[in-house]
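Task card 7
Instruction: Convert sequence to structure tokens.
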Amino acid sequence: MAIPLGLILAITVVDILAPGDIHLGPLLIVAPAITPWFAGPWLTGLVGALAVAAQAVIGVLRDQDELFSTNHQVQIAALALLSLVIVVFSRQRQRRIRQLAQVRSVSEATQRVVLPPLPHRMGPLRLASAYRAADDEAQIGGDLYAATRTGNGARLLIGDVRGKGMTAISDASVIMGSFRDAAHRSASLAELVVTLEESIRRHLAEHAPHAEADELYEQFVTALVLDISDEEPMARMINCGHPPPLLLHKHHVTALYPRHAEPPLGMCDLPRTGLTVDPFPFEDDDTLLLYTDGIIEARSSDGSFYPLAERIAQWADSGPEALLHHIRTDLMAHVGGQLNDDAAAVAIQRSPTLDPGHQLKKVVHTTSPDHAG
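Output:
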């Protein structure tokens, strides 16, 4: 408040001391004009009233006859009218700010329901996840990830729904809900992918019954499904049109391209058959980075893409949380602070030491019935 009040005082003093042919009083409107940036309508109205009073003081101190002149009275009336208009707009602005705060609150609640953060620990795995929507005012978008424990390992999903807005959020929620349910019931990754395919096709058919075939083909989800065993230093994946994960092994970064690439979910009219599972080594202290194309397709001011595989080699010794922090900071510096697409990433590190719950489960499993007590 010192800024508008200081402006009123400065303009008043300078106008009083200025020569008779110089009138700075109309500049007093600047004070109420800038007040809504940091104050509400009541304080804006108070500053406007002080500006009108200052204009009257100028008329009195410069020349009492000037106060009653037509020119000065018009200046006072114009200043009062403009101040009133500014107060009205300030009230509307404050109402919009409250509405935006409510929308953000709902968005954050929706994010926690639709896209909850991954647990930091899952058996022998340490996990970290990060999400940044392209829209600064949004908390969620079309990128998705999920993880769940199975009998002897963990299954993870990362995906990217084509498009943005509520439609993309709806498609993402369908995929994640289907994954959380089917990950426990499906005996193999191939069965899990078939279930996800059926879910998204059914969802698209129900919500777009009159859409043309070409429009349905434009609605799809790229997805990567992983199965990581607790016991063996191996992991298995099926990639449905998603960017290949990056494996950090002893300061070496390897892109894990699938031997047989599958089309994205939602693009197949016929049932998926002959799905190929790609195994790869995943040893102690290795880190696996899953990500969406919003990261690798992010461009700098000169048009160059973000070199994710090159950058993460220098952070190979970082834990999952630190790795994602480095990527997020470096990515935003690369694009100048503004992404053009949603971006999500999941870092998974196999720890050589299992968590206590897993160790207990392993002991109970290996204990003979005679010693079960």
